[in-house]
Amino acid sequence: MGEKKTDNECERNEIVRELIDDFAEQIKRLAYTYVKNWAVADDITQEVFISCFKNIGHFRGESSYKTWLFKITVNRCKDYLKSKWFRSMVPFRGDEKVEVAAGLDAGLIQKSEEENISLKVLDLPVKYREVIILFYYEDLSIQEIFNLTGIKVETIKTRLRRAKLQLRDMYEGVE
Question: Which of 49, 109, 114, 132 is the most buried (most CB within 10 A)?
Fold first, then answer.
């Protein structure tokens, strides 16, 4: 009996290791799009994989591992954004961009159209940013976004349309 449990634990450990190798960077980037802080995104990524390790035995296979991990990530991010601690820190978030930019080597910063668009995506409200990131950056279908977020398909389409309009307005406003 003990040997069987050890085999299950080894199998579970191996699956989680593979998931970390395959999805850790995507999870971290997704978390960052919500919280706009790399340190917090790191913490959320760790929490996601701890949760994955604890609950891998309950994974029913109704979705892909990627969708399951993204759902955990989105939920952790939303919990973080709703937390009392985060709301008390919001006034200081404006300084965060300055600190990050000041800490980067100027030689690493380049002005490309892709980077400008990415920065503008991060400036969108969360409800629009979420669908843009999942649809365009993570290549999820509208149905997969529905499965992940529970947001109605028509709402997803509307948010994508509105997000694109906002991005166009932001982009045209700069030039």
Answer: 132
Q: Which long-range contacts (CB under 8 A, 24 or more apart) does 113-121 make?
A: 116/171, 116/174, 117/167, 117/171, 120/167, 120/170, 120/171, 121/33, 121/167
The two tokens of residue 75 are 């939920």
Collect all residues with Cβ–Cβ distance below 8 Å to 21 and sequence separation of at least 6: none
* Cα–Cα distance measured from residue 146 to residue 49, given in angstroms and rounded to the nearest whole number: 22
Q: What is the DSSP letter of 136?
A: I
Amino acid at 105: D
Task: Give the integer Cα–Cα distance in Å for 122 and 124.
Answer: 5
pLDDT tens, residue by residue, 103-134 = 444 334 444 555 667 778 888 898 999 898 88
Q: Left (φ > 0), alpha (ψ -120 to 50) or beta: where does 61 sit?
A: left
